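Just scan my protein:

. . .
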Amino acid sequence: MARDSSKVTIGGQRADVAVFLKKVAAIAPQAKPVGRGRLIFALDATASREPTWDRACQIQGEMFIATADLGGLDVQLAHYRGFGEFEASRWAGTSAELVPLMTHVHCLSGATQIAKILEHAIAETRRSRVNAVVFVGDCCEEDVDKLATLSGHLGLLNVPVFLFQEGDEAIASRSFAQIARLTNGAHCRFDSSSAQQLRDLLRAVAVFAAGGRRALEHFSQRVGGEARLLSRQIR
């Protein structure tokens, strides 16, 4: 059976990272986005996510650095937690603006609300173009048909969703892979030992959102390591 390239595992095989980066390159627009790129950075802030939230706070600054020479990147933080609580921040153009928005959030127990993230992304991109959505979470407790419908709408709007799944919960894996497929995005699994790979991949998605495919190719040539595998795949 052919492997679904929208679903790969990171933190173990370098080849899996290359597959993901190749997937990003394949869906990136040929031309640089008009104006600053816009990326929605969405996270599950329920109780089990607290360690990952702390890592995300440390990593996010590198997304801005990676896109500085591409005209910049505007990032909007979105998260859910507790009993039906969902919040989306203002758009931030620098790490200094985004960090306070992230650090004031405390994780609370509750069910997943991925549908709200997808609904928000649809509404936001209808107001002004969103180039990509990143979601970091570990489980899914929602109606898969509803998620599929919303994902299909995002696909029609040409907004790819990149889902980073911590752990290997089976229902989440299936749901995340479906969202990635319907939005023409990608789904990756990672664990606590793969922080560097997660950092590289988030930077790659940020470069894609800010500068398109050509910028992503240049980025992979500059940074080397895991990202250098991308340039070999593109050739």
